[in-house]
Structure formats: C-alpha cells, structure tokens
Design a protein that fits this description.
With 226 residues, the protein is of the alpha+beta class. The protein has helices at residues 2-62, 66-79, 83-90, 96-110, 114-125, 132-146, 162-176, 211-225; strands spanning 149-156, 180-187, 195-199, 205-208. It contains eight helices and four strands. Helix 1 (2-62) packs across helix 2, helix 2 (66-79) packs antiparallel against helix 6 and helix 4 (96-110) packs antiparallel against helix 5.
Length: 226
C-alpha cells in the first residue's frame, strides 16, 4: 500500500511538473511573440520615419527651402521638449483639428515656413505625429550628409555662451574639413567642468575634455597601479 501510494504521488508530481512545463513554455512563447511584435513595430516606425524624412527632404530641396525647413525642424524639436506640448501633439486620441489648431499657433510663434507647417498637418492626417521625433532625427542626418555638415554635440555642465559655441564650431570645422558645422549643445551637470565633444550623428568620435573624464582617467590609473 505504501509503495502504491508513493507511486501515485510520484505520478501526480510528474504530471504537475509536465503541466507546469507546458504552461511555462506557453508563457515563454507568448512573451517571445510579443517581443517580436515590438521589434517589428519599431522597425516599421523607423522605416516610416525615414520615408517621411526623405520625402520632406526632396520637397524642400526642389522648392529651395531646405535650410529653412531644417531650421524649422530644430525649432519644432525644441518645442517638443515641453512635456505638455509633446503629450498633446503625440496623444493618439486627441482630435486632429485640435492638433492642427495648436500647430497653426505654434507655426506663428516659431515663424515656421508653410512647407514645414503643411508637413506637420500631414503627419496629423496620416496619424504619424507620434513619429515626429524620429522623423526630425532622420531629416537631420540626411541634411548633414547632403550639405557636408558635421554634427557636433557639445556636452557641458553649464550653458555655453554664443562666443564659446562659435569658437568650438570653428575648431571642429578646421579639424574635420567639413563645409559647415552644426553645434548641438547639451547640458549635463555630471561632467562637472569642461566639455565632451561628440562628432557625427552616430557619435563615432568623442573627445572628452571634461573634469569627469580626467577624474575617470585618474581612477583607471590608480586601479592599474593597485
């Protein structure tokens, strides 16, 4: 009887383990499918952003307003730094007409050209406003490539004065030989002092002239010495 009872217990345990394994496998497959869908959606969004940015690039070039549109999109990116503005324009359930009214007012305040304003309204109609940041980024990369412009991101602990920015842009132009330089200032108090210069939209080249960078070098040297 004892052996029979043990056999039944083992059988029940094995059945429970098999059921748990099936459940875990099903849950894992479900998570995997969700992850795959997310990756596919991100890829689709990136492709769409590239397509819209390319279309705007061609239109602006043909209309000879490329520089103006590029400057406009920088302004739009700055406006989206306002969380309230960003949440309103990217809200998928917000009425299209309400978004267009805000875009019209924003265009007046920022002095956007008609091509940029019409493009933003097109994104609203196509329900692609949630891709605006990716589109701006793609357009910026295309602009820099087409105009032989080097993108230089300057990270500092405090805001740089215009004279300092102009000096840095001139030095970057001398170093890279680029036709022009677009400076993108970023504030990061963790650098403590000095600055970190990142060249190119892919950030492949970085020059660390910050106090934090020097301190990290000292720490590495001490670690090696120890």
């Amino acid at each position: 009887c004892v052996r029979a009872s043990c056999s039944r217990s083992e059988a029940n345990m094995q059945a429970t383990m098999r059921a748990a394994a099936r459940t875990a496998g099903s849950a894992s497959a479900s998570v995997s499918r969700r992850a795959q869908r997310r990756v596919a959606c991100r890829a689709a969004d990136t492709a769409a952003a590239g397509a819209y940015a390319s279309a705007l690039m061609d239109l602006a070039t043909e209309a000879k307003v490329l520089d103006a549109v590029h400057a406009d999109l920088d302004k739009v990116a700055g406006a989206l730094a306002n969380n309230e503005m960003r949440e309103f324009l990217l809200n998928p359930v917000m009425e299209a007409d309400n978004k267009k009214d805000v875009i019209s007012k924003l265009a007046g305040e920022l002095e956007l050209c008609s091509y940029t304003t019409n493009f933003l309204c097109l994104l609203v109609d196509k329900q692609r406003m949630n891709s605006i940041e990716a589109i701006v980024s793609e357009f910026d990369s295309m602009y820099c490539e087409r105009t032989n412009t080097t993108l230089a991101t300057v990270t500092s602990a405090v805001e740089l004065e215009e004279g300092q920015q102009a000096f840095i842009a001139k030095k970057v132009q001398e170093i890279t030989g680029a036709k022009s330089v677009k400076l993108k200032p970023v504030i990061d108090e963790s650098v403590i002092g000095g600055l970190v210069l990142t060249l190119g939209s892919d950030g492949s080249t970085q020059i660390d002239l910050s106090v934090r960078g020097k301190l990290e070098e000292v720490e590495r040297a001490l670690a090696v010495a120890a």
